[in-house]
Design brief:
The protein contains ten helices and twelve strands. The protein has 279 residues and is α+β, with helices and mostly antiparallel strands. Strands 1-2-3-4-5-6 form a six-stranded antiparallel sheet. A six-stranded antiparallel sheet has the order 7-8-9-10-11-12.
């Protein structure tokens, strides 16, 4: 997964480099670096990784690399928290990172005023990048699946399962896929997706929302389709939907109906579709 291009805002003593990071498959988010001239080159003296799942920041990534994690429950939005620290505690953080000479320059009123002005630009760019460059994925809708021979839709109250055998020639992969859908605000949304491929099997929490993408270790989980079905039968769908970001759907689940449909329809049909496409 490629990284997006960096945007750099020059604020005199320091520069701010912004980059939306998608290459971490189970996480994503905006990275904000604080750069300064050290021995004739731009050195990264602070970095804030405003990720969805595990937001954290670094003091002196190129020197001490002290990493601290952010508690989203108390700190709130990681980008907003980061901008607040940059506006109110930047010299202190730079000192802790081990760059006293750079921090001292920011004690100068003119230098500090320029940084304060440029941080308004940083915030504008940061908010835009976080929205515009978010990684999501769109798979087939149930309407599309109904047009594809061999695919099936299984209704289970306020959710439905889409069963599809996918052929992905561009990445030389194939395998059974199970989609979990619901109607959210009058629109069908894919809540979960399980791509039980032969070469790169993985699953998604909230493909159209957070797109937390996790790859299976095939050494530990040799049959990823059966693993998926076992999670359904173990009653883990509500927790999965919560992590995907859909608590409202969870509140309306008919758990007994979902379990019955999984055991009596989803499992036998998914295994039969895989068997029909075996080679």
């Amino acid at each position: 997964m490629r990284q997006m291009q960096k945007t750099v805002v020059d604020a005199g003593v320091v520069k701010f480099a912004l980059q939306y990071r998608q290459e971490i498959m189970d996480d994503q988010g905006l990275g904000i670096e604080v750069l300064a001239n050290v021995e004739g080159r731009d050195a990264q003296i602070l970095r804030f990784d405003c990720f969805d799942q595990k937001p954290h920041y670094h003091y002196g990534p190129e020197k001490k690399n002290e990493r601290l994690y952010l508690d989203k429950t108390t700190a709130g939005n990681p980008i907003g928290w980061t901008l607040d620290q940059l506006r109110t505690r930047l010299p202190d953080m730079i000192r802790r990172a081990g760059y006293e000479d750079i921090a001292s320059k920011l004690d100068n009123y003119q230098n500090a005023a320029l940084v304060a002005t440029k941080l308004n630009e940083v915030e504008s760019v940061a908010r835009h990048m976080a929205n515009a460059q978010r990684r999501t994925v769109t798979h087939n809708s149930t309407a599309k699946l109904r047009e594809i021979p061999g695919c099936e839709i299984v209704e289970a109250g306020n959710i439905r399962f889409g069963l599809e055998f996918r052929e992905i020639p561009q990445v030389n992969d194939r395998g059974m896929a199970i989609h979990v859908y619901s109607d959210v605000a009058g629109q069908e949304i894919e809540l979960l997706a399980f791509d039980c491929f032969q070469n790169g099997p993985h699953f998604h929490y909230g493909p159209r929302n957070k797109d937390i993408r996790i790859y299976w270790d095939k050494t530990l989980v040799p049959d990823t389709l059966q693993w998926t079905l076992d999670q359904f039968k173990a009653g883990n769908i509500p927790e999965m939907l919560e992590r995907a970001g859909y608590p409202g759907v969870v509140a309306e689940l008919d758990k007994e109906l979902v379990l019955s449909q999984v055991q009596n329809v989803v499992e036998p049909r998914a295994l039969a579709i895989r068997a029909a496409n075996a080679r």
